[in-house]
Amino acid sequence: MRILLIEDNRELSDWLSRLLRKSRYVVDAVHDGADADTALATQLYDLIILDLGLPGMAGLQVLKRFRQKSGLTPVIILTASDAVSNRVAGLDAGADDYLVKPFDPLELEARIRAQLRRRQDNRTSQVVFGPLVLETGERRFSLDGSPLDLTAREYSVLEALVLASGRVVSKAALTETVFGFNDEVTDNALEIYVHRVRKKLGTGKVTIGTLRGLGYALRKSCG
């Protein structure tokens, strides 16, 4: 799951980015309205966290422009103002939820999960690939009934592959899923995480196949 965090307070942005990455989200962080507008025009996101008090283009303007372009991604507004008029303006502009600073990080994570669940209402709560099971609501994997201990990026690799249901995921697409645009990505960074996931899957009934020049795909063992 990829989140765009739009927050001009660098300290708060860095703290929230670390928090969300620990919860296995890929996070892109921008700090003004113009960069947010550009990010939304060039990248698809599963959720947007938007501060209203942005330099340059205001947060409400960013939101209105995004909705006018038929952007459907859930948006959670963060703001220092708890005035009812500001909440109404944000919701009327197209926000899905509203959180006033200061806030409890556990509440923010709960609201993120709630928005993602709503977006997945028409999807199954489980994705099954042989003995591998992804529980989308809890964001966890199990293999043969036992939980898989995955880091955030390992989780992103396996999530992208299992959601493809055996279809090939290109290296470029997988790289975009696993790494945010703030990350420094070396040439072999993706292969390192694919290798780690392969080791955790073991030599059982589910493996990650490499298709040279194409990408990666999950495979079920015939044995």
Average pLDDT value? 88
CATH topology of the largest domain: Rossmann fold
CATH superfamily of the largest domain: Response regulator
Beta strand %: 15-25%
Largest sheet: 5 strands, parallel
**Uncertain residue ranges:** none
- Largest sheet, order of strands side by side? 2-1-3-4-5
In the CATH hierarchy, the architecture of the largest domain is 3-Layer(aba) Sandwich
Count of the separate structural domains: 2
Q: N- to C-terminal separation?
A: 32 Å
Per the principal axes of the C-alpha atoms, what is the gross shape? elongated
**Helices and strands: which structural class?**
alpha/beta
Rg of Cα set: 19 Å
Helical fraction equals 40-55%
The level 1 CATH classification of the largest domain is Alpha Beta
Total of DSSP H or I helical runs spanning 4+ residues: 8
Task: Return the string of H and E elements.
Answer: EHEHEHEHEHEEEEHEHHEE
- Which oligomeric state applies? single chain
- How many individual β-strands? 12
Molecular structure report:
By secondary structure, the protein is of the alpha/beta class. The chain folds into 2 domains: 118 residues, 3-Layer(aba) Sandwich (Rossmann fold); 95 residues, Winged helix-like DNA-binding domain superfamily/Winged helix DNA-binding domain (Arc Repressor Mutant, subunit A, Orthogonal Bundle), CATH 1.10.10. The chain has 8 helices and 12 strands. Helix 2 packs parallel to helix 3 and helix 6 packs across helix 8. The longest helix is centred in the middle third of the chain and has 15 residues.
